[in-house]
Amino acid sequence: MKGVSHYMPDTSENLPVLLCGRNFTYQEIDEIRETVRMFSRLSLKELAYTICENLEWFMPNGGLKVESCLQLLKKLETKGIVSLPMKKEKIPRKKEQIIPGPQTDAPPTITGNIADYAPIELIPVYDQTKMRLWNEYIYRYHVLGYKRPFGAHQRYFIISENKPEQPLGCLLFAASAWALAVRDQWLGWTTEDRSKRLNLVVNNTRFLIFPWVNIKNLASKVLSIATRRIQKDWQTRYGYAPVLLETFVDAKMYRGTCYRAANWVYLGDTTGRGRMDRYTQYLSTTKQIYVYPLEKDFHDCLCRKGRWANE
Predict the structure, then answer these.
(1) Is the dihedral of CA 287, 237, 296, 228 positive or negative?
(2) Does residue 179 surpass a pLDDT of 90?
(3) Contact between residue 13 and residue 26 where contact means Cβ atoms under 8 Å apart
(4) What is the mean pLDDT of residues 268-283?
(5) Does some domain include residue 212?
(6) Between the N and C ends of the chain, which has fewer C-beta atoms within 10 Å?
(7) 175 or 226, higher pLDDT
């Protein structure tokens, strides 16, 4: 096939090729190349929308897989299969600035046993006002500060039903790390399995009990509540449910006690190369990796075996 034969052998014309988590036929790749050529005046994002619509490339919640398509286009350009339009100049987005206010000042110390504050609840954060408040708490009191989460994510406030106006902490689940040697070996993942199933692994990227809160066993209780509700919340928001949770613990600062108490499984340590996406890696300190299965047959799901084989 002209335009793609230097990348894909012509002898297997009808066989699919795995790119960005989807199997494409060579005909589809050629259609993408032709779409890029014909609509060269469109912006890159407009091209991605057009291609997703043509290929009926949807997320489980019905939205178009635009981000995956953008990654695909960049990969095809790297291989010389397409020539993407020049990026249009755009005004740089103003960096989000957080200025702590009195609403996140430390109140009097909160102490006691978990029974004194039961029931504990996790409140999903959706509206902008609560989101800004959540961001401010994390920026002000979490050791890693605030960074805008990428991909699918869900923020929570930790509250006691007895005093819902006074949050006890914050929690965030977000996209999992692209490549973790210890995790991938433990799962027995192939590159194809990981590319297709990575979205079913979700990372607990932020967990903060406020420094003025000293409630015995609160942290492990929160984690137990989170593992019981995260699938439903993710399904509601994104149209699918994760089957495995993961998190990183900096052993120089923490012992991971609350994760162990909540029955998370310690897998080993990261290599210290940091969290990676498909194109970038960042230097980091070595961290402990903990996971928590949300389904008994999570391994079959992540490796497409058993009842998950045809999904």
Answers:
(1) positive
(2) no
(3) yes
(4) 54
(5) yes
(6) C
(7) 226
